[in-house]
Design a protein that fits this description.
202 residues; alpha+beta; Lipocalin; 8-stranded antiparallel β-barrel; 6 helices; elongated; DNA binding; Lambda_DNA-bd_dom_sf; Cro/C1-type_HTH; Transcriptional regulator with XRE-family HTH domain
């Protein structure tokens, strides 16, 4: 995409009007209209303000995404864990928001419906060479102390990532297990099932 397309698509994604974007960037609404029509190019200081308002980098605003795989969107996460000393394999929807090589991840709901089990969480991953994501996670609920690290290997075409989590459980002990994040729920569950079936001990 070129800059006008980036501006239009990001503004629509953020539900911003041209007037609201103009206000954030400190320019007249007519200028935003001209930028989006490709009739003019913003100066560097104005482009920086537009990029900030649209939550993109200057490179992304200019349409330069390089060859970085795009990971933003709705995904499904499936984890090998345990509850009350019983193996559990929860699957939950997660939202990924990517900015350059940094990916924010947020669980949209609990993975386990059992009383007192599971929790929502958030984290941050850094993408390395379009191949590996490494980062952290932490419980997003008061009173839950779970936190740890994530290492995920990304599928060549960005369809799923498989890896491992290591962290402190809600009641203190250190635990580890396999994890899968995929574009749809069934793929996430199937990939995790395959890892477990192959006898890979957590």
């Amino acid at each position: 995409m070129d800059m006008p397309e980036v501006m239009r698509s990001r503004r629509a994604m953020l539900s911003l009007s041209q007037a609201e974007l103009a206000h954030h960037a400190g320019v007249d609404k007519r200028q935003i209209r001209r930028y989006e029509a490709g009739e003019a190019q913003p100066s560097l200081p104005v482009a920086r303000l537009i990029a900030e308002a649209l939550d993109v980098t200057l490179d992304e605003l200019a349409g330069n995404h390089g060859s970085r795989v795009g990971l933003s969107g709705q995904w499904w996460a499936s984890w090998q864990t345990q509850t009350n000393d019983t193996p559990a394999y929860p699957t939950q929807p997660v939202t990924l928001t990517q900015r350059d090589d940094l990916v924010q991840i947020h669980a949209d709901r609990r993975g386990l419906a059992l009383p007192g089990a599971g929790y929502t969480w958030r984290g941050e991953l850094r993408l390395w060479d379009n191949q590996v994501l490494m980062g952290w996670y932490v419980a997003d609920e008061a009173g839950v102390r779970s936190m740890g690290t994530l290492f995920m290997r990304l599928h060549t075409h960005g369809q799923h990532m498989i890896g491992r989590w290591v962290g402190q459980s809600h009641d203190g002990p250190m635990l580890t297990g396999y994890g899968v994040i995929a574009r749809d729920e069934q793929a996430a569950a199937d990939q995790l099932g395959q890892l477990v079936e192959e006898g890979m001990t957590p």
